[in-house]
Amino acid sequence: MKRILFGIFAHPDDEGFGPSGTLIQEVKSGTELHLICATEGEAGNNPDNLPNLGEVRRDEWQKSCDLIGASSCLQLGYPDSGLSNQYYLEIADKIKAKIQSVIDAQTEPVDLQFMTFDTTGLSGHLDHIAMSLITTFVYQTCKQNLPENVEKTGLRYFCIPYSSAPEPNTHWLYMPAGRPDDQIDETHDVSEVFEQKLKVMDSHHTQRNDAKMIKQMRGDGLKTEYFYYA
Question: What is the pTM of this model?
Answer without folding.
Answer: 0.97
